[in-house]
Design a protein that fits this description.
Strand order of the largest sheet: 4-3-2-1-6-5
Strand content: 25-35%
Distance between the termini: 39 Å
Number of strands: 6
Number of helices: 3
Helix content: 10-25%
Mean pLDDT: 86
Length: about 120
């Protein structure tokens, strides 16, 4: 029986553990820090990441706003050691889905509306 080798999470390794994604910084197209990933939502059936719940604003976790964003709108940038968001602040603020906190679970219809709003394929289809 082979035992697994322990490797470090190098920037060029294609996989990342979920606990390493949570808390990762998010930047806009200009490289400005805009928030962080609070949770990653995974489709139980397919195993694919559906969306991230992100926090924006606030100070030390107080007063933050929480927005789900389709995973396809995030792109990991090694130069930033974080994710770059393919959504403007205005688009984010006008999203049909905002959560009171990062543990809220939206209804599937609300999720579908959010995916449609961002022009992203819905994870359940």
């Amino acid at each position: 029986m082979q035992t697994a080798k322990h490797i470090s999470y190098a920037e060029n390794y294609p996989l990342i553990a979920s606990d390493r994604v949570e808390g990762t910084a998010v930047y806009n197209d200009h490289g400005e820090h805009v928030g962080r990933i609070e949770r990653v939502m995974i489709d139980k059936r397919s195993g694919r990441v559906a969306y991230a719940i992100m926090s924006f604003g606030g100070f030390l976790g107080l007063g933050s706003e929480h927005y789900p964003v389709p995973w396809t709108k995030l792109n990991y940038k090694t130069s930033l050691s974080g994710y770059q968001l393919d959504v403007t602040e205005k688009e984010l603020k006008n999203s049909p889905l905002k959560l009171d906190n990062d543990e809220d679970m939206p209804k599937m219809e609300e999720e579908r509306a959010m995916f449609t709003y961002y022009g992203a394929p819905f994870y359940g289809s």
